[in-house]
Write a structure and sequence with these properties.
Layout: E1 43-48, H1 52-63, E2 69-75, H2 119-137, H3 144-149, E3 151-153, H4 167-177, E4 184-188, H5 193-206, H6 212-222, E5 223-227, H7 234-242, E6 247-248, E7 251-252, H8 261-264, H9 267-270, H10 275-283, H11 286-291, H12 317-322, H13 344-347, E8 363-364, E9 367-369, H14 381-388, H15 406-420, E10 433-436, E11 441-445, E12 449-457, E13 464-470, E14 490-494, E15 504-513, E16 520-530
Parallel strand pairs: 1-2, 1-4, 2-3, 4-5, 5-6, 11-16
Antiparallel strand pairs: 7-9, 8-9, 10-12, 12-14, 13-15, 15-16
Helix pairs in contact: 1-2, 4-5, 5-6, 5-7
Length: 531
């Protein structure tokens, strides 16, 4: 679940968490991490809890399932959603949402979980209905049968529960132990307890055996966690202490798609979140569009959920509160974009030319590598202040600058929805092709001139224009760089005289067609400054 990003959680050790006494000894030698082989698709596992923005992120993920090998679609729990064990066992963890806002609801046998939950199955069913059309536009869409075979139930009983193996944890374990030399991208849209259980099961089986050093090294080489926060403390309490070398990819500067995004992006970017845009490009486009949650849609993930007021249209905040809802983010107009707080975890895996997942020196629609300690989790102190303050939801928000990728990402998303309802290839637009002449990584000295060129084409015969620009936020050199005069498929720049050895500069060639919607593909060159 992707809500309440960046807030600090109150860390509480659960009885099911493993004590640090048995921590693995780690080698001082740096791990030899695996990268997805050139020309291959990244291997992906999605773990998700039944929050409405997980539902929405899953729809976008399925529309881009051409671009990766889906290895698992796993139901997970989090501090926000857990099923219970069916034995009337009750749980309450201090600092969770049911202990805030003046609430005293738990200990509970379950929390915000529909007993008939099947949102992953329902999303794949909608994909199945759209599949014949989608495959007309891209033959790489995986078969519905394949996707259905990847659905599993993970550790969903409680917040952070990782005491027992589950079909979901068993699947992750088998992938980490298979013989394929490629990373497994483990996406945690909810809690990380299913991932933690897979790792713990490997540790329990092999620690103390002659195979353990090789097995441990293999898991560290292969596992890449793409978190949407530590939503159940299992990363803090188990994964980080026992497997500190595992890559934990946190990104900054990605396309903003979380709750309330339309109030924080620029006015130009906000046009891609309006009711009219969502209706024309998403909601009215087939079975997948019909599953997209938008503001005021009359739906609720769990009946009676006091935190889920999103389906109620045209009702003032004060009236929602009188009805017993905890209003932690302001409502928007009926039909407006609602949220995809977990989409950032896979945007860099999309094959758009930016190669955002290939090492920390790159970045893409999902942002660029963020330094600093792992995201500690999801607390609710700031949310509680907003929810309980009469003015908390009316505070002025300073809008961000127009994002370099948001418009292109949203138009691309809209095109995929169009594919889902268009049975003829010529009835929809398709992405242009751009190819860089030369390597994607260069080494150059300060003052040296870099000359580059690309070739473009378009499968629909559309005209393609090329824009060259420096992605300053993702590079380490922060000064201004003068680009060569716009010359279409030719571009370049002179490395600034004050650039220091080790500085990196990212130059992007952006190719956009004139179809409807206009679609974009990229090439990117990373220049490392040397002496």
């Amino acid at each position: 679940m992707g809500r309440r990003e960046g807030l600090k959680a109150i860390v509480v050790a659960l009885a099911v968490c493993v004590a640090p006494a048995g921590l693995a000894q780690t080698s001082k030698a740096p791990p030899r991490y695996l990268e997805t082989p050139a020309g291959a698709k990244p291997r992906v596992v999605i773990t998700a809890d039944p929050e409405l923005d997980d539902n929405n992120s899953l729809i976008r993920y399925l529309l881009y399932s051409t671009d990766y090998r889906t290895e698992g679609l796993i139901y997970a729990s989090s501090q926000f959603h857990w099923k219970g064990d069916g034995k009337d066992t009750r749980l309450s963890v201090p600092g969770r949402e049911y202990t805030r806002f003046g609430l005293h609801i738990c200990p509970c046998t379950s929390w915000r979980w529909d007993p008939h939950e099947r949102f992953i199955d329902d999303a794949v069913a909608a994909y199945t209905a759209a599949y014949p059309n989608l495959r007309v536009h891209d033959r790489d869409y995986p078969s519905p049968t394949l996707l259905k075979s990847k659905i599993r139930w993970g550790n969903v009983a409680f917040d952070g529960e990782m005491a027992k193996d589950t079909p979901g944890s068993d699947l992750i374990k088998s992938l980490l132990l298979d013989r394929e030399e490629a990373p497994i991208y483990l996406h945690a849209w909810g809690g990380q307890s299913t991932i933690a259980r897979a790792l713990k099961s490997i540790e329990e089986q092999y620690q103390g055996t002659p195979q353990w050093p090789a097995i441990r090294a293999q898991v560290i080489r292969k596992a890449v966690i793409h978190p949407s926060g530590d939503q159940d403390d299992s990363y803090a309490h188990y994964i980080k202490p026992h497997w500190p070398e595992i890559r934990y990819r946190q990104q900054a500067g990605g396309v903003p798609l979380g709750y309330n995004a339309q109030a924080m992006v620029s006015e130009a970017d906000a046009a891609y979140f309006t009711p009219a845009w969502m209706s024309e490009n998403v909601v009215e486009r087939g079975p997948l569009g019909a599953r997209e949650r938008v503001w005021g849609d009359g739906k609720q993930m769990v009946k009676g959920d006091i935190f889920d007021y999103f389906g109620i249209a045209d009702t003032p905040v004060e009236d929602l509160r009188k009805q017993g809802y905890i209003v932690w983010t302001p409502p928007h107009a009926k039909g407006a974009f609602l949220g995809e707080g977990d989409t950032h975890t896979f945007l860099n895996l999309i094959d758009n030319g930016l190669r955002g997942y290939r090492g920390d020196s790159f970045g893409g629609w999902g942002g660029y590598a963020r330094s600093g300690p792992p995201d500690g989790g999801f607390g609710l102190a700031m949310v509680e202040a907003a929810a309980n303050s009469p003015d908390g939801l009316r505070r002025p928000i300073v809008r961000a600058a127009t994002h370099p990728f948001l418009a292109a990402a949203q138009r691309d998303w809209a095109a995929r929805f169009k594919w889902a309802v268009t049975p003829v290839y010529a009835g929809a637009n398709h992405n242009p092709v751009i190819t860089l002449a030369g390597p994607h990584q260069l080494r150059a000295r300060a003052g040296q001139r870099i000359a580059l060129s690309v070739r473009t084409s378009d499968p629909d015969g559309d005209a393609v224009s090329v824009k060259w620009w420096i992605w300053k936020e993702a590079g380490s050199y922060k000064g201004d760089i003068a680009l060569a005069p716009d010359a279409g498929e030719r571009g370049g720049f002179a490395v600034p005289a004050d650039a220091a050895p080790g500085d990196q500069i990212q130059l992007i060639a952006e190719a956009t067609d004139n179809g409807a919607p206009a679609l974009t593909r990229y090439e990117k060159v990373v220049v490392t400054v040397v002496r």
